[in-house]
Design goal:
16 helices, Rossmann fold, alpha/beta, 397 residues, six-stranded parallel sheet
């Protein structure tokens, strides 16, 4: 399976990023890539630290001192990123030696150079030289699994908590549950936890945030699960932005084998950061016509964002077979894709929520239908390949 390439373009010239995208599209074998854009060196340094791209393409100017500073900052904040300078020959002027400038850039810490306009062959050869390093970096990261829905009240958090708890029983202290339902997070109460720290604390510590601090900010559950809780209120939730979320996810997947993200039913910049970094996305819905129609729009949105359907899973939750209820085949027809999981209604889930004890602890794998489906879901996400980006050739800031 070909890995998705995470690229950061740092340039004041708005034409460079589309140039990169056009070159990628010309690859004979195709290349899945997500391209982030920074308009200046300062922003580029911050995005590199948060997103940890495999490749940073920097617009080269005559300001080699600033270029050197950027290269040094990236080497510290994202040491696995390969940095290449992209230059147009006309920047040197008729009386300036191109080779002399390149030598100065090498002294500034730049090791690779690409001429503009970028050609597919030049970029393909460059990526081939970096291929081995990129594969090693991708293999070193854990998996990010997100649970999303088009509306609240469909049991998305219930599924996220039970899957995370069941997974943690198999992999103690190697699973992190992030409650990214920023204003209405319920994961802590569903686990009967009272966390002293939340996502907001991670954001406030962004300058010193690393893998160790992420673990320290998470609260431990006796089952072996770690939880990074939602902010305490809407005011604190407002402090969480997309770059902060990207950094938290980047560090979390380096500290844990599995990162489960519960979300809020709103596709904003924060959720876009989550989707960017998700290796699999579980779309949770109920078999009610308004919910199904909304889920169909959500699935279409994921397609429009170039998120492969192979990374999407459709979950019908709290299903009951009675006259007048939509059948799984009806739902599949309306949303235009097959149903991956049919989770039955179980009244014990209400008791579980009230007591703060996930049902997966009591639902046997072989004798409970809920347990069977949930464990099958866990088996599936254990087999999901880790891949740090999702969208195919999509350019966004």
């Amino acid at each position: 399976m070909q890995s998705t390439l995470n690229i950061l373009v740092v340039a004041s010239d708005p034409k460079l990023a589309p140039e990169v995208q056009a070159a990628l599209k010309g690859f004979a074998a195709g290349q899945d890539a997500v391209v982030h854009v920074a308009g200046d060196y300062r922003q580029g340094s911050e995005i590199a630290r948060n997103r940890r791209p495999q490749l940073v393409l920097v617009e080269m100017t005559a300001d080699l001192a600033t270029l050197k500073t950027l290269a040094e900052e990236i080497s510290v904040g994202s040491p696995e990123s390969a940095v290449a300078a992209v230059f147009h020959p006309n920047i040197f002027g008729p009386d300036v030696s191109e080779s002399a400038i390149i030598i100065e850039a090498i002294r500034a810490g730049i090791r690779d150079f690409l001429r503009r306009p970028l050609s597919t062959s030049d970029l393909e050869q460059f990526l081939a030289r970096l291929g081995r390093k990129i594969r090693v970096v991708a293999a070193a990261t854990g998996k990010v699994i997100s649970f999303i829905s088009n509306k609240g009240g469909v049991g998305k958090s219930t599924m996220a908590v039970n899957v995370a708890a069941g997974l943690a029983k198999r992999h103690p202290r190697r699973v992190l549950l992030i409650d990214a339902s920023l204003q209405l997070g319920v994961c802590a109460s569903m686990l009967d936890l009272q966390p002293a720290t939340t996502l907001t604390d991670a954001v406030r510590q962004r300058q010193r945030l690393d893998e160790t601090l992420v673990k320290q900010l998470a609260v431990e559950h006796p089952c072996g699960l770690d939880l990074l809780a939602a902010p305490k209120d809407a005011v604190e939730a407002n402090e969480v932005d997309d770059e902060s979320m990207a950094r938290i996810l980047t560090l979390s997947r380096r500290a844990y084998d599995f990162v489960i993200v519960d979300s809020f039913p709103l596709i904003d910049r924060v959720m876009m950061a989550v989707l960017d970094m998700s290796d699999a996305i579980y779309v949770v819905l109920e078999s009610v016509v308004p919910t199904v129609l909304g889920a169909a729009k959500l699935c279409q949105l994921l397609d429009n964002l170039n998120i492969p359907q192979s990374k999407q899973r459709i979950v019908i939750n709290r299903y009951a077979n009675f006259a007048g209820n939509l059948s799984p085949s009806d739902v599949a027809t309306r949303i235009g894709r097959p149903i991956d999981y049919l989770v039955p209604y179980d009244k014990n889930l209400l008791i579980s929520a009230n007591t703060g004890q996930p049902l997966i602890f009591r639902a046997g794998r072989w004798f409970s239908t809920f347990g069977k489906v949930t464990h099958r879901m866990i088996d599936d996400l254990e087999a999901v390949p880790a891949d740090a980006a999702t969208r195919n050739g999509k350019i966004h800031p």
